[in-house]
Structure formats: C-alpha cells, structure tokens
Amino acid sequence: MTAIDPTAHLTAEQIEELGRELDAIRDEVIAGRGEKDAAYIRKVISAQRKLELFSRGVLLFSIFPPAWLVGTAGLSVAKIMENMEIGHNVLHGQWDWMRDPKIHSTTWDWDHVSPAEQWKHSHNELHHTYTNVIGKDNDLGYGIMRVDEDQKWHPFHLGQPLWNFINACFFEYGIAAYDLELGKNLNKRRRKNPEFRARARAVGRKIRKQVLKDYVIHPLLSGPSFLTTLAATFTANLVRNIWSHSVIMCGHFPEGVQVFERRSIKGETRGQWYLRQMMGSANISGSKAMHFMTGNLSHQIEHHLFPDLPSNRYAEVAVKVRALFEKYELEYVTGPLPKQVFSAWHKVFRLSLPNRKPRVKTPDREQELVAA
Amino acid sequence: MTSAALRSRAWKLLEMVTTPLLPSDYLDLVSPLRAGGDLRGRIEAVHPETGDAATLVIRPGRGWRGHTAGQYVRIGVDVDGVRLWRAYSVTSPSNRQDGRITITVKAIPDGKVSNHLVRRAQPGTLIQLDQATGDFVVPEARPAKVLYLTAGSGITPVMGMLRDIELDDVVMVHSAPQPQDVIFRNDLHDLVADKKLRLTELHTDTDGMLDISRLDELVPDWAERETWACGPAGLLDAAEDHWTEHGVPERLHTERFRPGVVVTGDGGEVTFGTTGKTVDADGATPLLDVGEEAGVLMPSGCRMGICFGCVTPLTAGAVRDLRTGEITEAGPGVLIQTCVSAAAGPCDIER
Ligand code: FES
C-alpha cells in the first residue's frame, strides 16, 4: 500500500482521455487481426502437441537417465506452454474471433485440475473485472494470504510464507480449490448446496482423469520404466506449478502495485477502470523466449487492459501502453523475473507479521481512491 | 467381446492417455483427411474459368459419402484468419475416377469467401467440409425432355448434372453478361457439337435480361419439359410465376443460392430461439439487457466485454459491436458477446 495516491495528479478529464487513447490502441489491434495471428496460435498448438508426444515417448525409456532428463525437461516445457500461452489465453476468448470451434473459449479444456468452466468464472469474470479490489478479487492472496497492509492481520498469517510455498508446489490444486471457493464453502450449510456439490464433483472428475493419466496410465505404459516415468511426470507438474505460480505472483504482488477498496469502484467509468488495471498490475521484462514461456503474462499490464487481445500482440501493444504511462506520469511496474519474484516473496514475508505502524497517518483512503 | 466393443474399449483407454485432449487432436496433426476424423478436404488445384470464376479441385477426406449431380456442399474456409462457411454446387460428375470433387466459384463483388477462393486460394490448403446435400437433382426415373434455365453462376449445379447424366433431349437457356463471362463455355459448346445439348446463350449486356415470355419462342415446348432453373432471384421468381400461370408448377425445380441478404439497421426485433420470446430492441441496448428485461435466462459475467461469459450463438440476422461499431452477421459457428452487442436489424439468438 502506498499512502499517497499515485494517480492524484490526474483530473477526471485526463482519465477519460487516457481511456480513449487505450480504446484506440485496442481498436487498432482488432482491425489488424488476421491470418498471421491465426497461423501463430495454430503453430504454437501444433508445436506443443508434438513436444508433449515426443517427451512422453522418450519417457517410455526413462529408466535410462539421459532419457529421463530429456523427457522430463520436454514434458515440463510442454506443460508450461499448454497452460500459459495456450490454455490461459484461449480460455480468455483471445482466439474466439477465428471461429474455429477447436480453438475456442467455449470448447477448450486444459491440462489442469480446475475445470475450464469454473476457472473462466473466477478468473475471467471475478479477477479481471475486480482486479485488486479487496474483498472482491480473491486473487489477492488467494484467500490464504495477506498481501496488503490494509488487510487485517491474523496469527494465521504468520505461516503464510509456508502456505505460499505449498501453494506454489501444488498450484493447480490451489487454483481448483480457489475456483471452488472451498474455504468459504466448507461450512455445513454451504457444503450441502447442490450447486456447490455439482461443481465439486466436476473438479473430482477432472482430478481423477489428470491423476490417472499422469500417475497411472503413462507409467504403466512405460513398463519397466514405471517408477521413473512416475517421477518424471511428478517433476514436470511440479516445475509447471512453481513456474506458473511465480509468473502469476509477479503480475499483481510486487511492491509498487496498488490495491483498491470496495467502495472505490462504485460508478467507475471506463477510464477509471483502465487506470485501475494499470495501477494494479506489474510486468516482467526479458527476452522473447521469456515472454513466450510466461504465456505473455509478462505483459500483465497489457493483458489486464485488454484481456481478449491475442497474446502475440501484447509485445507491440506494450510499447504504446508504456508511452501512455509516461505521458500521464504513472509508474510502470516492471523488472526481470528474479527481481519481481523476490519482491513478491518479500511482501509475503513482510505481511506475515502485523504492520509495525501505519507509515502515514491513514488518510481518507476512500476519497483518494475515488479518483483512481 | 465383439470387435466393435473391443475397439470402443481401446478408444476409451486412448482417451485416458490423451486427456484433456482427444486422440483425434493428435491424429489430426498427421492425417487430417483420415476416416473417422472431422470431414475436411484439401484444395489440390485452382483452374481459372473466366475473369472472375475458378474451379477448385478438392480431395475430400475419407469420410466423404459422395454426392448426387446437382447437389451442393458447404465448405468452411479461413479468410484472414476467420473461418467462414459457404455453399457451392459440386460441378464434377459423381463417378469421377480419382475421387476428387470440384466446385466452381464466381467472385461476387465484396464477397469475402468467393474472392478469396477465386484469387488467393492456394493448392495444399485444408478446408472444412460438410456432406453434399440438396434436392436440386434429377430423379432416378429420367424425364424424357429436359430444360435447364440458368443465369450467371447458376450454371454450376446444372453443369454437374450435364457431366453426370446423359439424357436424350436436353435444351438449355443460359444468360451471362458477355460471351467471356459464360462459365464452362467451351464445355457447353463441345456438348452442342456432340449433339448432346441444344443451347441458347443470351448475353444480357447486349440483349438485355431474359424476358420470361420469350420462352415460347426460344423453347416452344417448354411446358412439356421437366425444368431445372438456377440463377438470380429475379429470374427464379419470374419463372415460378410463369410456370404457375401456365398450370405446370410441378415441372419446375429451382435452386436459390443466396438466401435473403441480411438487412442491417439500428435496432430491430430480437427473437430468443430457445425460449421463443420476441421483443423489440433499439440499436444501443446490449442484447444481454434486452434478454434479461424480457425474462430470458442469459448467462453473463463482467457485462463489459472482457470475460466471455455471455457468449451465445447468433442464428439469424446481424448485431453491432457497441465498442467498435463492427457488424457481425449470423452464420454457422458465429457466437457473440451479448453484453457488448446490440441488434443491427432483426436477429435471432439461441437462448
Ligand atoms: S458478460 Fe463478460 S464478456 Fe459479456
């Protein structure tokens, strides 16, 4: 939390003007979407499938250490591509415009224990609409952590570095539980709710399929390499989970990112909504390969402004967005992965303890945030 | 266990191996035209016919069930990255030896798909395919005397028939703007030379449009002939009136290529197909609101166009994107975000 509103210098007209400029950037990309973009996603999907097939094939012989290494590395990368650049983005509807029923947000399913439907609701709808609004956006600490000084401290938070580490290792399960709103639904009355039960069953089915595939069928197919294949798949899932957890932490948790109060978004205009996305997200800088492996979520700011634009366009959009940050004198939070990961973890540790004291006598935060 | 049951077991197991994808997602990588996959075709050659028409030679996938002369096939083509579906008559005979089929496409002004196919389609391209369909066909019991009444690209289904079925007494009246616009002109003249066809070729740029009452003079026995007519709506309407007036409507078979053009405007009557509700909508209210107002259960989420939680099939008519002003017309596989789309004329939504 910054006690001083970093957007206080903007007038209401400026904020609306900023909104119009961002709309123009969006329109331009939409008008230019075409064959090249379609070819891009098809190429990525086909490369991912081939890599996965190849790696699983190699793992049939994982009893030999070199095969284990190659297969495990390949499968880890394939799984990361599948979740990040393909799954996350297709489920956002980024490729719906192609009208290809095979690459469409309404039909896609991903290599993940959270069913696509549930994830789309909690992620696309709740998180993206209410980005960083305390009490509305559960991504803020996933309901198990305190990530802002304004959130009330509780002794439970002392353990949050550990919770966060466990969450990173089993991230896909964490997400599934989170999409189910498990914490809140565990009390007796809610547990019985038929709607919740149906969703829980869907998660159960998805977990069963995923576990069967990764930990039973593929190892069995490997015969004598049963155990080594099992270890390889486990490792690949672990790598994928830690990687995506790290990337996602970098999106909203590093120092410098703003959070907002529930009441601050009442009657929010389009310009204000855009501004909130700008102030509530953070990027990762790096090479092309780095952007690719993060599913272009390294362009988290751009993704939050335009969640439905094709991911391969974020890099070019970022140049224009960054110019707007400069023009409007706003801080564009970005940095290399290690720095951002450290920053996010630092916050997790820092906020596991109660605030020593508010750094500034709490100003009327609400008023200042109305401007945001 | 029967072999079918065994195969389905094996398939189930394979599905567990590939979950959450399907085995077919992997098989498509290597063999997109295989039996059992979605029906597709590969464009193998593009032959120009006239300045604005071309014939595409397509190798259909193994699941292709063949066609009857006169039928059409729907194809899905990616134009600028967007999959668009159109129907074209099959112009090859049904017993073509190499198993390929041909369609012949005329580029119509502003026609996205037709221009793409005629001018930019590349051999090697995969397209989506439906099975051939349509009842614009010659019955098993061959009629003794036949008249083909065609204009422009309306010749295409008839060419399919001419190449497929030999009949004793065939007359054709075909209109096109100029001689060089007549698709299949050489083939037609060859048939005439072989005495398999009597042809009246009309050039509307010099002769004007065909006046249907001139049929008496062009084909005196037209009323005795089983007639297949295909061409612009004006010609077909006139023919239908003419045949009815003379008391022989059952002799006339027509094929209309383009169903009514979508009229776009500002607002219009919205029909919610599933619930059967119909309401008037203006051009500024999101269809999500229109539906909710009318008591239709509409899925929704962010209500601002970002979550794709409100995506719904548009089955007829057109809508306008309230953010960009872009018009989307109904078609197979067309889904719209109801929270940022308003009626642009009458439209049907599947809710
Ligand atoms: S309700 Fe979210 S996109 Fe329409």
Short description:
The complex is a heterodimer of chains A (372) and B (351). Chain A is an all-alpha fold.
Explain the layout of strands and helices.
The complex is a heterodimer of chains A (372) and B (351).
Chain A (H helix, E strand, L loop, with lengths): L11 H21 L2 H25 L5 H27 L24 H14 L30 H10 L1 H9 L2 H4 L2 H5 L1 H28 L4 H27 L17 H11 L7 H6 L6 H6 L8 H14 L9 H14 L14 H6 L2
Helix pairs in contact in A: 1-11, 1-14, 2-3, 3-10, 4-6, 5-6, 9-10, 10-15
Chain B lengths: L2 H16 L4 H8 L9 E11 L2 E8 L11 E8 L2 E8 L11 E6 L5 H9 L5 E4 L15 E7 L3 H10 L4 E8 L8 H9 L4 E6 H4 L7 H4 L7 E5 L2 H13 L6 E4 L12 E5 L4 E5 L5 H7 L17 E11 L5 E3 L5 E3 L3 E9 L2
Parallel strand pairs in B: 7-8, 7-10, 8-9, 10-11, 12-17
Antiparallel strand pairs in B: 1-2, 1-6, 2-5, 3-4, 3-6, 12-13, 14-15, 14-16, 14-17
The complex binds FE2/S2 (inorganic) cluster.
Instruction: Enumerate how many helices of chain B there are, as a single number.
Output: 9
Series of H and E elements of chain A = HHHHHHHHHHHHHHHH
Helix-and-strand structural type of chain A:
mainly alpha
> Helix coverage percent of residues of chain B?
10-25%
Major sheet description of chain A: none
Order of helices and strands of chain B: HHEEEEEHEEHEHEHHEHEEEHEEEE
Query: Which runs of chain A of at least 5 residues are low in confidence (pLDDT < 50)?
Result: 360-372
Task: Kindly report the spatial arrangement of strands forming the biggest sheet of chain B.
Answer: 4-3-6-1-2-5
User: Terminal Cα separation of chain B, in Å?
Assistant: 44 Å
| Gyration radius of chain B, rounded | 24 Å
What is the share of helical residues of chain A? 55-70%
Characterize the overall form of chain A. Answer: globular
Strand content of chain B: 25-35%
Radius of gyration of chain A: 21 Å
Specify the structural class of chain B.
Answer: alpha/beta
The geometry of chain B reads as globular
Mean pLDDT of chain A: 92
Number of helical regions of chain A:
16
Strand elements of chain A, count: 0
| Assembly type | heterodimer
Tally of DSSP β-strands of chain B: 17
